[in-house]
Amino acid sequence: MTPDDATLTEAGLEPTHHGRILLIACGALAHEVLALKRLNHWDHLDLQCLPANLHLWPDRIPAAVEAAVEKHRDAYASVFVLYADCGTGGQLFEKCKKLGVEMLQGPHCYSFFEGNEDFAAKAETEFTAFYLTDFLVRQFDAFVWRPMGLDRHPELRDMYFGNYTKLVYQAQTDDPALDLKAQDCARRLGLAYERRLTGYGDLARELAVVAAG
Amino acid sequence: MAEDDIILSELSDDELVLQMHDDLYDGLKEEIEEGVGILLERGWTPYDVLTKALVAGMTIVGADFRDGILFVPEVLLAANAMKGGMFILKPLLAETGAPRMGKMVIGTVKGDIHDIGKNLVGMMMEGAGFEVLDLGINNSVEKYLAALESEQPDILGMSALLTTTMPYMKVVIDTLKEKGMREDYIVLVGGAPLNEEFSRAIGADAYCRDAAVAVETAKAFVARKHNQLGA
């Protein structure tokens, strides 16, 4: 059973210790990874999630990943890290290289959900877009509104978002309720709204390679 | 009015400056503007108001941000309050000939629209006596070069928040090298995903992890440059 978003944000998810390949993922990917496991019957993949709120302090991600790899690697045939660079400025890549484990390609989840090549191709024209995924739409207040102090100081909104022009909701699932909530997020940020059904993008493609390994 | 409300105009100079430090910390823009006005009325030079009341107050904010006591929203509120004070002082500083430390051209790199850190650095540099030309966001190498050639600053500052845009700093530095201009400028870089190793790898002079470090680094490099020129 997938834990609720608040648990994934604050505590993450412990592995079940069933399976020969351990995926160490960001808590924000738990729903998507478990859905792909179910759909593809990847029972040999086990999942551990680190707290999604590590993204509020990206410099802490490499050490947290290292601790998880070191803790569990002896119990599995292999470990794969389901993080992209995620604002670590190459530090996570270097850490994974040192640990001898593979990780997702790309700069962040917005890129791999859309497909890294497609996302990069849009970089010149879409750099004023603010992205949300399914998880971030559900957890908008915990990841955007409150950490930025907008609950206490809404007057700061334009200092943060004044240079953005639109909010792009990258939908992993076709959920009208999330669409409505994402529209409301755009309204609160004072941005135009666009919904883009990305599905699981490169996450599905890369996981398929890991599962076949 | 509540009984414990503080009347700024009734405070001594020393008390008022300390109160302004508190008000900056709490991001109280109107109080800062009022405090600046009172000190000027009492005959303080604009430079003293800037350095002793505003910059000293923001230095406390910067230190507490670095130590994890304050967070970005509080720093933004403090910066906004300081901006209110600077708005009053800036024309007066120009008139009264405050000391000039040097000149800086600063901007966020191409493809990047994040300017909170860059704006803070620009403001603190101005507070420290640097003349700052802010190029804003999404700057191409051509725009940086044009500003360097027209403004002839001591320092070029580049900022990036994204892993995807920070490599553009190297494009700018490499172009400076190609044109034989690299040694004419002190190049400082900053932004959340950067670090000292990256700064060295791209050929910048220094990585500045926050606005206070940027000011201290800029002062040190400019002093060194002046010493070299004087030698």
UniProtKB/TrEMBL annotation, chain A:
Residue ranges of domain DUF1638 in the record: 49-205
InterPro entries: DUF1638
Name the UniProt record assigns to this protein: DUF1638 domain-containing protein
Organism: Rhodobacter ferrooxidans
Lineage, top ranks: Bacteria, Pseudomonadati, Pseudomonadota, Alphaproteobacteria, Rhodobacterales
From TrEMBL, chain B:
Organism superkingdom: Bacteria
InterPro entries assigned: Cbl-bd_cap (IPR003759), Cobalamin-bd (IPR006158), Cobalamin-bd_sf (IPR036724), Met_Synthase/Corrinoid (IPR050554), Meth_synthase_dom (IPR036594)
Top EC group: transferase
GO biological process, one term: tetrahydrofolate metabolic process
MF-aspect GO terms: cobalamin binding; metal ion binding; methionine synthase activity
Any GO CC annotation of this UniProt entry: cytosol
Family recorded in the similarity comment: Belongs to the methylamine corrinoid protein family.
Protein name: Methionine synthase
Species name: Rhodobacter ferrooxidans
Organism phylogeny: Bacteria, Pseudomonadati, Pseudomonadota, Alphaproteobacteria, Rhodobacterales
